[in-house]
Amino acid sequence: MSSFSVGVTFLILLSLVPSLGYGRNDPTKMHPKITYHGGPILNGTLNFALIWYGKCNVLKRTTIVNFLTSLNKEGDSDLQPKVTRWWQTIESYQSMVPGGGEAKAHNPNPKIIVNVAKQVDDTSYKYGRNLTIADFIPKIVHEHIHDQPDLIPIIITAKDVDMEGLCSGKCADHGLIDNNKPYIILGNPAIECPGKCEWPFNDVVNGPKSILFLRPLSQNKAADAMVIALATTLADMVTNPLNTGFYGGSETAPLGAGSVCKAIFGSGAFPGNPGKVHIDPSTSGSFNAHGYQGDRFLLPAVWNPETYSCWTLM
Predict the structure, then answer these.
(1) What pLDDT does residue 212 have?
(2) What's this model's pTM, rounded to 2 decimal places?
């Protein structure tokens, strides 16, 4: 996240630079297609409770909150592309769900409102610094929003907290507790797994090697990487909250609308190369989406249900 700076914004077409040991494969052909499995998706107003577990710094907090705010609020109309346009692709899944009658015919893709309704600071490390989903996620949620069942918790951990299941293929995850209540868990990769969850700002431990890396616009690799992980997981959760909605692959290892398009940020992307993005001339930071009040973000590709392919803003 960063405020808009005066000056020319440069474009960099990273697909012109070869990655080491990998050809120009179409990333969308390397993953299963997303299909509908008959279940509900989330719509209407999504009221989120951000539970900051551990001592999370101000930059990361501000970056994440500003991203969520930008999903529905546009800034300067002259600045393109928009975060809202990215979110509209997720909203378009509503038209792919059967039913809805006359109301749906007139408005097949109503707005899905994202509202940060509550923020909680849990800096005591009450449940320790090594958390397991089965044991601690329900406890943290019940402690902080037990009397507000309509809130969807997003648990965001500090850099010195290790969350089970993150860093091993996923940098954030979503699931269900209680009576099908969805939640998101978002880890901070700064200490635990920069080599797995900070690409394209860092080299990866396993996978394609690149000859260059993008610079985070916020000047903090973990902060910008956490926005990417949250965006990916939010797309997955909204379109497949109960594991009966839109996904590809198997029921036990589903790939959602965001996760199926992993490591694609612009046109021309291929393994080890994120594709075309904007480069800010004053900071050399990378972005592909303009948000609210001058904020800018690097957002991942998502699956477009109309074209049956991964789609990017650029």
Answers:
(1) 67
(2) 0.89
